[in-house]
Design a protein that fits this description.
With 153 residues, the chain is of the alpha/beta class. The chain has six helices and seven strands. The N and C termini lie far apart (47 Å).
Length: 153
């Protein structure tokens, strides 16, 4: 079955439920840009500006993956990752952060994040990491290497 949505360029895009991505960020510009990129790449984007909206969207839709900002007005991204992992242990969850300290990354890893993305976001890296995740080539849990930890101190 094919699901069709307009991708904003006047062309139809194949949007499968398995490519629905929840994007959680309190910065409207970041939400808009990420949703534009996701739609252009054939995914459905569900934006949420805070934890409450994210929890509601997560419960209401068939989400394939989520991109979650660490700093939200009502919860931390790590708290959302913990809640989403309890509900659906196999869902890939990516943490976005402008503060990739060892503590933040370790907390995200422990909570079950699949990966993390540094802000400001590199859209090519977002596409690469999310593409791997949605195609099944990415792990659903993150492991930290010594090299990654050295680069975040």
């Amino acid at each position: 079955m094919m699901f069709v949505a307009w991708n904003g360029t006047g062309e139809a895009a194949d949007v499968r439920p398995s490519r629905t991505v929840l994007v959680v960020d309190d910065d409207r510009e970041t939400l808009d840009v990420l949703c534009q990129v996701l739609r252009r790449d054939g995914s459905r984007c569900i934006p949420a500006a805070d934890g409450a909206e994210a929890v509601q969207a997560f419960a209401a839709a068939e989400i394939a993956a989520a991109m979650i900002d660490f700093d939200l007005p009502d919860v931390t991204g790590v708290q959302l990752i913990q809640e989403f992992k309890r509900a659906r242990p196999n869902i890939p969850l990516l943490l976005m952060t402008g503060n990739p300290s060892q503590r933040v990354i370790f907390e995200a890893c422990e909570a079950g994040a699949s990966s993390y993305l540094r802000k400001p976001l590199d859209l090519q890296r977002v596409r690469l990491v999310l593409g791997r995740t949605l195609e099944g080539g990415g792990s659903t849990t993150m492991t930290m290497t010594n090299m990654e930890m050295k680069g975040t101190s």
